[in-house]
Specification:
By secondary structure, the chain is α/β, with parallel strands linked by helices. Bound molecules: (S)-3-Hydroxyhexanoyl-CoA.
Length: about 700
Amino acid sequence: MAEAASSENKVSVEHRGGVAIVTIDNPPVNALSFSVRKPLHDTLVRLRDDAATAAIVLTCAGRTFIAGADITEFGKPMQDPDLRALIALLEAIEKPTVAAIHGTALGGGLELALGCHFRVADKAAKLGLPEVKLGLLPGAGGTVRLPALVGPLKALDMITSGAPIAATEALEAGLVDTLATDGLVADAAAFAAVKAAEGGPFVAVRSRRDKIAAADREQLEARIKAVIAKAKGLRAPVACTEAVRNAVLLPFDEALAAERALFVELVTSDQSRAQRHLFFAEREAAKVAGVDKSVKPRPIHRVGIIGAGTMGGGIAMAFANGGIAVTLVEAAHEALQRGLERIEKNYAISVSRGSLSDAAKAARMALLSGTTDYAALADCDLIIEAVFEDMAVKKEVLASIDKVAKPGTIIATNTSYLDVNALAASVSRPQDFAGMHFFSPANIMKLLEIVRGKDTAPDVLVTLLSLARSIGKVPVVVGVCHGFVGNRMLTARGADVEALLLEGASPADVDKAFTDFGWPMGPFQMWDLAGLDISWRNRKALGKTALIADWLCEQGRFGQKTGRGFYLYADGRTAQPDPELAIHIANEAKRLGIAPRVISAEEIIERTLYPLINEGSRILEEGIAARESDVDLVWVNGYGFPLGKGGPMFWARQKGLSGIVDRLNHWHQQTGKDVFKPSEWLKATTAEQTVR
Ligand code: 3H9
């Protein structure tokens, strides 16, 4: 017999003999919104007091178990009952309670399941506490109950990485009691009936102290130290370690109270606000203007890649890592061989570091086949050219692809700067053509700019978006312009950097201001690493110059690879200041009549980051990016903009756009540039912020 327990039907109960099956139905991911918590609370009270109910099974409708608290409720007053109260109620029920888990039990969802006496999982289920990725920690007892069930070391790994574990691993770790074999709910109901028949008392997770008592505290402290060393200025991972340590050292209720205090600190922090913004930004990015939800992706079973160099090889690895077959094409056998060997070597390094098994390496290599014959591309569903960044070369390659690709195959160019519409003209099917701008190393970097040409078909965009997500990339659809979103803004960021040197900052001053801000490295470190010759070649092609960088290149100083660039690299890696460069810069400044002065870190940030934000605003005004959050995703995932600051546009809004406009005005005046003209987007947005 089934009955609805709430007016909205988000929680319903079915009685199977003495077992009450409580089903939560709150699509799409059964988040624990108030509209679920309230009826669930009332239902549990009723079943607790119902003499005919001998056991309770908690399960979910739809594609997944509860994916967590409702993130959209954070930052607003929490309506009672809160999740902690709900779990306390559940945990105190003296009848056996069983969570029946399918899909993903995440965050508050897993915490609710930890409030049950038992957990039964579907074999394909995943369980985890991903709060750290939102700049949070599990705030409903997860940091205290998980260590009790799986031991503090395992719990620390799960909580500080945020990565879910598979059901089999959860079984081994003691997180679930059994895996379903005949059907999840039926098995969970049978399990609950057996437990009820066996009789209590049933031990709540809070009372299981054996794994806590047995914890190796020295090892725990060592792991905590390692997590803190890798926290990169983020507070959440550190707070997670504090909470797990509390779970070991403090009595249960004290540890719970300490967890709560940490959660409140984090949920109101700028870092967590930024990370929550990025969570929703990733989901928003999947929505493309003019593309209806009903548009279906084309199936992609095999990807062809032209060019087995660093970029092509990296892209091939990205697909093989995602389980997709790849045909790699090179012009000559030797180049193909070199490319395949480089891939094999990269995988071998992962094996030697322990991050990849031999079997997984073999499986990935087996997905890669190499050839020098374009005809082998005939069965590919997507073909990406990743050859030299030159319009004529790319056009020739694309025309050759066009001749062999079957109808419906998507043809893509991996270009960083070139005009995608001009490239589309070299194929006979521009509707099947798009840009796919990967970032190097393409097997590691998460960002993918999907460049929408004027004729790109909606289903091509949908296909590339879902394909990218399936291989773990963060895709963002962008429009056609020189450098798209990321590289165009990067150019703006670097425009004043040489001027800063001439005015008195050293490369190390600039780089330090960047790393203090939270960037992984500064512009000079980045250029030295990438090779100064690359931007030199680009400048020459565009008829542009850079006073200092050109001088370095003219002397064959291309950065780390030649041992000298903006820095000296005596050992090939460690950057040392170069006195000769300092003299050269001072001489150039003198020649230009620039008097040296002390440049503050604040000025360095204002003269690099503010122009970048300004360029972002122009990109929005022109519709090259659809929304601010898309720009933020590009910068966080492709260029190392600090995660805890949420991306340049988010950071700019927090900082106050009108202040940024004032400072851009100021620097334009100070450095003798034309009067600063804010974009229409900046004007409108600052006006809107002022009114608010
Ligand atoms: C927490 O639990 C705190 C507690 O410890 C303490 C509390 C006191 N809330 O990702 P998808 C939306 S913190 C609200 O595309 P998938 C999402 O925005 C939480 N909304 O699906 C999207 O909306 P739209 C800890 C949520 O199948 C739609 O659902 N939990 C939430 O690719 C579909 O999402 C997490 O961090 C949420 N919790 O992946 C888990 N989750 O369609 C977060 C999703 O309008 N969620 N939405 O764009 C996920 O990791 C993935 O959504 C999941 C499904 C793997 C579940």
